[in-house]
Design brief:
Length: about 500
């Protein structure tokens, strides 16, 4: 393994992820606009019901995926590396059949047992009526996640860019615009959202055959031509599924606690700022999408040393690109909340700041989890998820009854931080590689110091100026970027940008 090899592999990954990230900026704008319109159009109680139902749908989606979207993301690259085309086709057949069966069962159970849900699990019958409509999103989203995993495994970022970042968000925006234009209620919004999801998944369905033909796989989908390595696949996907369910349950348990100990208004405040706080994870999510197939190929080549070096460099990019969002959430939490969500949600500003700390911390250490999955350490990941879920339950029960949505935010952030630390320790334990080399660690320390300074400006100086906060966010972001400019190797990875800049100067 040479330094040139490391650079080439890293450059390829960052360039592909950069394409997805550029598209993500568009989807951020569209999704944020959709979120703002929904929050502003609905009353707090109605939005609380909407957020409650969507949290349950998210859990049902995880159940319907059964870990298959991550399974194809890992095994398709490995099978291609091993030359097993029949196994690639078999993996796809198993994944699609599993999600179809579980999706149908989930929808049927929710609709068939709606009265039982009202009597036992969900206290508010209005939430159940919305859930009965939105539950159709569970299989739709599961298929969407699966197809996203398939296209990422085949190295098709342009398709993901189009569906995930342009068409999908546009359809969701159209759903709320239609609802507002017709002065309709929550049920109409639910129906329009489901319809938008179905239309979005049709695009993936149209493009999939073309990709399969390009990879010479179509002939393997005939009876008797594909092969399914059940034991190998389920040995991976079962722990992955259990881990994903643990993550989903952590979200739902906080929602349950808020609704049980307080009311849907608290649910609304907590969930309304969540999409803004999760912007700290946007870069991580995009870079992770192509990182798992790359890491899986390196694992198949038994080249974990190269994987460790690439992971460290990519993590640096994730941290630096995520910092401006984190800085804004810390320094401008109240203006951002009021601007986007309205005065009704001004009290949710501290919740945004608290959640941002946890999600930025996760962004800075998040690729350790993807690397462990590529190495096949799914049981270890499952144990970490179980511990994190126990922590989430304990902290939620301690903090939510007394502090409401603020307590939920603290519990979530504490869980996310401890969860990220556990994944980092596990990576170091199994590979022996330093997950945070000093060359990069100093950048993280600088970012933390800058964020702390932003947070202390108002208490120490008494100055409450939005303009000053914006200025300080920009200055600290520039300091963080310049501190590691050479480490980022921007000119080497994106030579076109440098050439364009030089031509503009002429």
């Amino acid at each position: 393994m040479t330094e040139d090899t490391v650079h080439k592999q890293t450059n390829k990954h960052i360039r592909g992820s950069g394409l997805l990230l550029s598209g993500r900026f568009l989807s951020i704008a569209l999704n944020l606009l959709t979120q703002v319109l929904i929050v502003r159009y609905l009353s707090k109680a109605d939005y609380g019901m909407w957020a409650y139902a969507l949290a349950l749908v998210s859990t049902a989606t995880t159940l319907g995926c059964f870990g298959m979207e991550r399974t194809v993301g890992r095994f398709i690259p490995i099978y291609e590396e091993e030359g097993k085309r029949a196994a690639v086709a078999g993996t796809l057949v198993l994944a699609f059949a599993t999600i179809a069966a579980l999706g149908f069962a989930t929808v049927a159970l929710v609709i068939g047992f709606r009265s039982l849900l009202t009597d036992t699990v969900i206290e508010n019958p209005a939430v159940v009526s919305i859930l009965v409509v939105l539950i159709a999103l569970a299989p739709v989203n599961a298929f969407s996640d699966l197809l996203e995993g398939v296209f990422s495994a085949f190295g098709e970022p342009k398709i993901i860019f189009l569906r995930k970042h342009v068409i999908g968000p546009s359809l969701k925006l159209a759903a709320i615009i239609l609802t507002i234009a017709t002065s309709s209620n929550l049920h109409t919004l639910a129906i329009a959202t489901v319809f938008a999801g179905v239309l979005g998944i049709l695009l993936y369905g149209v493009l999939l055959p073309k990709v399969l033909r390009e990879h010479n796989l179509t002939q393997y989908f005939r009876p008797g031509m594909f092969s399914i390595e059940y034991r190998r696949l389920f040995r991976f996907c079962m722990p992955v599924f259990a881990a994903d369910m643990a993550i989903a349950l952590r979200v739902v348990l906080v929602i349950f606690a808020l609704e049980h100990f307080h009311n849907l208004t608290n649910v609304a405040e907590y969930r309304a700022v969540m999409p803004i706080a999760r912007l700290n994870n946007v870069v991580l999510v995009n870079f992770s999408l192509l990182f798992l197939p790359l890491a899986s190929k390196l694992f198949a080549q038994k080249n974990t040393a190269l994987l460790g070096e690439i992971q460290s460099h990519v993590t640096l990019w994730v941290t630096v690109l995520s910092y401006p969002v984190f800085a804004a959430c810390i320094s401008l939490s109240e203006p951002l909340t009021v601007l986007l969500l309205g005065e009704r949600y001004a009290s949710a500003a501290p919740i945004l700041a608290i959640l941002a700390v946890g999600y930025f911390f996760q962004a800075a250490l998040g690729l350790n989890r993807q690397s462990l999955r590529a190495l096949g350490k799914v049981r270890v990941l499952l144990y970490i998820e179980i511990v994190a879920t126990i922590i989430a339950v304990i902290t939620a029960l301690m903090l939510v009854p007394k502090f409401g949505a603020i307590g939920a935010a603290i519990a979530t952030t504490a869980t996310v931080i401890l969860y990220s630390i556990m994944n980092t320790i596990a990576w170091w334990r199994f590979t022996g590689d330093n997950p945070l080399p000093w060359l990069y660690a100093r950048v993280y320390l600088l970012a933390a110091a800058c964020a702390l300074g932003l947070w202390l400006v108002k208490p120490l100086t008494g100055i409450d100026s939005i303009l000053l906060s914006f200025l300080l966010v920009g200055i600290t972001s520039l300091i963080v970027i310049l501190s590691c400019w050479k480490l980022l190797r921007f000119s080497e990875i994106f030579p076109e940008a440098i050439r364009l800049f030089k031509s503009m100067k002429r």
